[in-house]
Amino acid sequence: MFAASRVGKLSVRILILCMANSARSQMAEGLLRHEAGASWEVFSAGTKPTRVRPEAIVAIREAGIDISGHHSKSVEEFLGQDFDYVITVCDIVRESCPVFPAKTKHIHCSIEDPAVEGAMDNRLNAFRHARDELLKRPRPFVREQTASPGEGPINQ
């Protein structure tokens, strides 16, 4: 789902958007930063930011990634900035995504909202499911973007 054309430069700027910037986009930011390393600038934001959900912190920590220092940010903080990619992880934000420069590639990756009502165990399982869905996507995307020209697709 993250498949896109190679950027051909060392630094890639990515903005990941969802509604509250509390779970899916935060976990995706942590995953992409983990996979891509310091050569990429990865940010996340929301159209109506709230707070980072503790269940998101726990679920992604189980995958060896720490987002406990993250905070929810508004997409307005990033308007006017250049990004190579804007990735939306919720359907609502896909429809209302702010306009970024024409060179920005938009990618949509629909992930079910894990912030459901119910017992803590059920909620945490929903966050784990969202994490697992996100885990399937960044590694091939990062490898595709960092492959040398002529290498072709890289298998996991």
Describe the structure.
By secondary structure, this protein is α/β, with parallel strands linked by helices. It has one domain (12-139): Rossmann fold (3-Layer(aba) Sandwich). 33% of the residues lie in helices and 14% in strands. It is built from five helices and four strands. The chain has helices at residues 24-36, 54-61, 91-96, 120-135, 138-146; strands spanning 12-18, 40-46, 85-88, 105-108. It has a four-stranded parallel sheet. Helix 1 links the parallel strand 1 (12-18) and strand 2 (40-46). Helix 1 (24-36) packs across helix 4, helix 1 runs parallel beside helix 5 and helix 2 crosses helix 4 (120-135). The longest helix is centred in the C-terminal third of the chain and has 16 residues, at 120-135. It starts with 11 loop residues before the first strand and ends in a 10-residue tail after the last helix.
Helix/strand layout:
Elements lengths: L11 E7 L5 H13 L3 E7 L7 H8 L23 E4 L2 H6 L8 E4 L11 H16 L2 H9 L10
Features:
Rossmann fold; 4 strands; 4-stranded parallel β-sheet; alpha/beta; 33% helix; disordered C terminus; 156 residues; 5 helices; 14% strand
